[in-house]
Design goal:
alpha/beta, Rossmann fold, Arc Repressor Mutant, subunit A, nine-stranded mixed beta sheet, about 15% strand, elongated
């Protein structure tokens, strides 16, 4: 790589790492000087005279330390084929650039375009239930069927996040994980294999350099990137508090579309989503069809999710199994004792049918003998 280019990159990384530096200040510096290197070559007095600011940002000691750390980061970037994205670069995610608190510098490794024509962020609880995981898998699958150019974004965390990434990989959709740490590590370590797969069909994105020590506050801060890079944020399961609610709220501040999967009243894992819907901070979401309609997207072939499911079931299920599936699809769920009465079927026979449907991946069982269609 060209020495001049590396030197310019070092100045950019250093500028982004100066404590207190933000978009407003950086924009002003670039406007006044036309070159970020000037920030490091002028004295503190000269910078004060140039900008009219008297700030600790101009400390020679702090700027010197930033440059030294940046030199190591440039070496790390070159060694690991990482793409540095400064906020003035054409490749910097343009949706994120609309946000006032967008990071000055991003580090990206992968092959997916961050300027994809459609970007959906899917977030939710780390303690996902079968209901939430099943919805994500179905939603992503149906989205891939009609919008194959969609980029799926999440945070590579436990629960809904990693479910969204893995569902995208299975369906051939590119998926990007926004990390709360540098690209020198993967957290949680259990998701390393998934992260490696994502590098082949998607990528990993972060605002943090390999020099920075991981801090718990980073996990909340990265959610603004998850919200900012997307056209819409989908929240699937959340308690009354949590990072996914922060993501939803900031997405609303960014004027992004926000959707939430409703849950039963009293379900702890759905309280956050239900509150978002109740307070009109999120649109109620039942599947890919209503999402696509709400977004106004033109699709390749717009098939009803239910029709697709029924058509598939017609081919693979017996008559009794299809009858039970039709009931579950119509009702949303069924309790085995009530189903036995309404379907006029002995419990033993119905139980055997439900077991077969579960083996075929058509239903998920819940405590209390409750079944829901996949």
């Amino acid at each position: 790589m060209d020495t001049f280019v590396d030197e310019q990159l070092r100045y950019r990384i250093a500028l982004a790492s100066v404590k207190g530096m933000n978009r407003i200040l950086a924009d002003k510096l670039v406007e006044l000087t036309g070159d970020v290197s000037v920030f490091f070559t002028l004295s503190q007095r000269e910078l004060t005279e140039l900008t009219g600011w008297d700030s600790s940002l101009f400390s020679e000691v702090e700027r010197g330390k930033a440059l030294k750390d940046a030199q190591s980061e440039v070496a790390f970037i070159r060694k690991n084929n990482i793409s540095p994205l400064f906020f003035t670069d054409e490749d910097y995610p343009q949706r994120l650039l609309e946000c006032d608190d967008a990071p000055l510098m991003l580090y990206y490794k992968g092959n997916a375009s961050l300027q994809a024509s459609r970007v959906v962020s899917i977030v939710g609880t780390r303690h996902a239930t079968p209901y939430g995981r099943s919805f994500v898998e179905t939603f992503v699958r149906d989205l891939a069927d009609v919008c194959p150019d969609t980029l799926i974004v999440s945070g590579l965390a436990y629960g809904i996040d990693v479910t969204a990434h893995r569902a995208a990989l299975r369906c051939g959709l590119p998926t990007v994980g926004v990390l709360a740490h540098g690209l020198n590590t993967i957290y949680p370590a259990q998701h390393r294999n998934t992260a490696v797969e994502m590098l082949q069909c998607g990528g990993l994105l972060t605002e943090y350099s390999s020099q920075q020590t991981v801090h718990k506050g980073f996990f909340l801060a990265r959610n603004r990137i998850v919200a900012g890079v997307a056209d819409a944020v989908v929240v699937v399961e959340s308690g009354v508090k949590g990072g996914s609610l922060f993501t939803a709220n900031i997405a609303g501040d960014y004027h992004r579309d926000v959707f939430a999967l409703p849950g039963r009243v009293g379900d702890i894992s759905s309280m956050g989503c239900n509150n978002l819907i109740r307070s009109n901070r999120a649109a109620l979401l039942t599947g890919a069809d209503d999402f696509i309609e709400a977004m106004g997207w033109t699709v390749r072939s717009h098939k009803s999710v239910q029709a697709t499911l029924t058509a598939t079931n017609d081919v693979t299920l017996t008559g009794d199994e299809q009858r039970v599936m039709n009931y579950l699809i119509a009702q949303g769920e069924g309790q085995i004792n009530s189903m036995a009465i309404e379907l006029d079927t002995p419990i033993a026979t119905l139980s055997a049918t439900l077991v077969e449907l579960e083996f075929k991946g058509r239903v998920i069982t819940y405590p209390g003998g409750v079944y829901r269609p996949v």
